[in-house]
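Long-time lurker, finally posting.

We've been working with Threonine synthase (Desulfosarcina ovata subsp. ovata) and I want a structural starting point before designing mutants. I don't trust myself to interpret raw outputs, so I'm hoping someone here can both generate the structure tokens and explain anything notable. Sequence follows.
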Amino acid sequence: MKIDQFPETIRPHLIPKPSGELIYRCLGCQAEHSIESLLYTCPDCGQVLLIHDRRFDRLKALSGETWQQILDYRRMLKIPALKGIYRYHEFIGPVIPLDSVVYLGEGHTPVVEANTVLQEKTGMRFFYKNDGQNPSASFKDRGMASALSYIHFLIQEGIIDEVLSICASTGDTSAAAALYAAYLKPDIKSAVLLPHRKVTPQQLSQPLGSGADVFEIPGVFDDCMKVVEALADGYNVALLNSKNAWRILGQESYSYEIAQDFDYAMADKVVVVPIGNAGNITAVMNGFLKFFDVGIIDALPKIVGVQSEHANPVYNYYSQTAGDGRRFVPMTVKPSVAQAAMIGNPVSMPRVIYLVDRYNRVAGEPRVFFAQVTEQAIMDWQLTANRNGHIACTHGGESLAGLEEALKNGWVNAKETAIIDSTAHALKFSGFQDMYFQDSFPEGFAVQPKPALVNQPRYVCPAHLKRVPEPGKPMAKEDFATFVEAVAGQIAGDLGLKKR
Ligand SMILES: N[C@@H](CCOP(=O)(O)O)C(=O)O
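Top reply, 14 upvotes:
Generated this for you. Predicted structure of Threonine synthase:
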């Protein structure tokens, strides 16, 4: 649709112009710092930052209903910069001009309702939000689109040049960082640090394919993160982990999309997300808080954060009795099929503590819950979901296992609707499915395959056949007909097919 075809009241707001006044705000000492330099922690006290719009209240000049219309009409525009996460420009990066926006097709991932079989099994209505359908096949693209649009803006303004971006990763962040940096070459070069043998082959192939410098180091993600922090402190690099508050802004789009896809009715909704470095749950809470503040959604949805019992520092924190005695204790992680979330010291923990408190206060009741699930439950639920038409990764399995826990604990009920996060594409983690099907999980995972969920290919090559097809060696017509008949017969027998 062309601009002049939209209602007159909406037209002036359809194409956003740079607005607002963004600053980094420290969660420790509340100091505010200009966004003109790339900051990851507070120069005064070292605490993590969030980006705050000093002029956020200007957005309240329009009613929530008008905002809903603006966002819904924006859906019809054909402007690339507004097709992705910047449909929510005013809430994500209002100072970024549209010609700085980097759009690689991220965001607006499908919400797919579970079939009746799966809803009956879990006991409630739910949808998967398939964030594996982002360009690098995970939700991290949302954050990268924001962080790289901002860096692109600084380059265009002549504030920085020759950027080397760097990140630590369990696989998804590095894939996304390398992809977005590759798009902006030669202005940006990319380097990624991975824990040796702790990312899947598919994930390793991604930054390699995008041309990044890939470094593997001993240890787990938390060790990589420390090295990357040392590099960001001591050298001129752009840190692309979610410690970078621009990443959080982009990932807020996840909440905005859920709000929009469910017609802004959030009172009976439950949003389930796995927790690793905790940037995602931070963004999800912050996003819903902003929309609620402006009156775009009717209520704050419930949020369930899920961790495996092999990497559960956030769950452990919230299992302690609330109050001054609560202490966050980083942990040593154990092997987990939710490998992207195998993190013992999440960098966003201070943000989580701050936002959970705020979220529950604004809601007037506890609306954020934390579940712990077993490795076995993660695998069983992932495979069960995918046997019912989904493409959930192991973290999607973790979400579904978390929903089961939330129902069991009475945090959510069968009258509500859940939107659960499959953070990446199933194919990135197919190695865990293979281990399940071949019963080859190393002991540390503590996963036993359930026979009903196991599947294996069957090789069909009847022993009596003298010749079978081979590439480059055509078969005689009769030999081929014999082959087809024998193989079809054996398959029909295996499947118990009746002759017509
Ligand atoms: N799961 C992450 C770990 C790093 O997370 P980030 O959001 O802080 O960048 C990954 O995929 O690497």
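Before you design anything, note these points.
The longest strand covers residues 188-195.
The mean pLDDT is 97.
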